Amino acid sequence: MTRSIETMMDFFLREKGELIHINGVQQRALIRDAVDKIQASNEKIIRATTLLHTGNFIDYRNERYLITSEIDHNEQSYRSRIRKCNYSIAFNWNGNVKWFDTIVEGKSFSVDTGSVISFPDGKIQVYLQDNADTRAITLSQRFYNTHQPFKVEGIDRTVNGIIKLSCVLVFISTSDDDVENNIADRWKYEVVHTYALTIDNGTEANVLINDILLLNCAVTDDGDPISNPSITFSSSDPNVVSVDNQGKVMGIEVGQATITARLTYHPTVQATIQITTVESLTQTYTLYLTGNPTIKVGQSASYVSQIYDNGTEVFDQSVQWSLQNQDNSTPIMGNITASTGNSATVKAGNNSNYYNKYIVVTATLTNDPAITMDKTIQLKSIL
């Protein structure tokens, strides 16, 4: 009877098998659920004519599985159990970060009794394919899973093809760990980038139908300008206002649209400008301030106001400069030591009580005091 069932399964494998990948190589296999009831472990049984090994990766229906059992075989095919990899984990070797598809569990099912074995709070087990990269994992090495840090406290290599890690929850390293992206010690070896993108044409501008306005964008990293940044532009309504990848905006028909500029490789860093397509232009002034967002106490920095009329920079207007504390308190923690029609020099007060506090420099259009632009400046320690 058993032989008959095996023969039938081999027939179904040949006739009904699905295309999968075993360690990246396309094969045909028959896969079914290992149990009738749905379980969290998501375990299945695979049958293939190709030799299977414990620790093989199986890519099936856009999911990755790991062969976790010994291999059973007859004259025609091989059979084993597979479990879906439920997490991707990064290990960091002195700045060399490698990601691994893993099975992570905080509790396990006993093979003999079917009962649940719970691990102590704060402990997990991680199953990985045994390969040259995973064999480099060492005791006490840290990693992140679900934004929580763990340390390897045990390594089990008794099952051919699989490495099992026993891990315990540890403390976050706030200075070194990239918690958001689940990478331990990332900032210990990498420079932290703080990107900013601005559209210098202001927050809004008008453009004539069939006319072009060029957007002037600036990108900084920790306040330092980046030359030739890669920026992607988009329009909320291309039928009203179009934009190309050079930032050339064209009015298509009367109406409004929002143009968004994004850093191509860091799309969360973005800036917007509202563009109105009009049949005739009236003067619409906007201001934009450039200058360092921080000043060390007792030192000075220069700030420049660019003046735009409908998004085009003009040079026949001027601004008035003023300075105040961000919280409007007194005395003001700095002063304007020099100013012209479009630039000013701000000097921070020399007082340790000012560390990490903020002042605000304001440019006001001389011919229209209703048009202003602020720039917030953080006062930093001189050390």
TrEMBL record:
Gene3D superfamilies in alphabetical order: 2.60.40.1080
InterPro entries: Big_2, Invasin/intimin_cell_adhesion
Domain BIG2: 227-261
Span of the signal peptide: none
Family annotation (Pfam families): Big_2
SUPFAM superfamilies: Invasin/intimin cell-adhesion fragments
Protein name in the entry: BIG2 domain-containing protein
Source species: Paenibacillus agricola
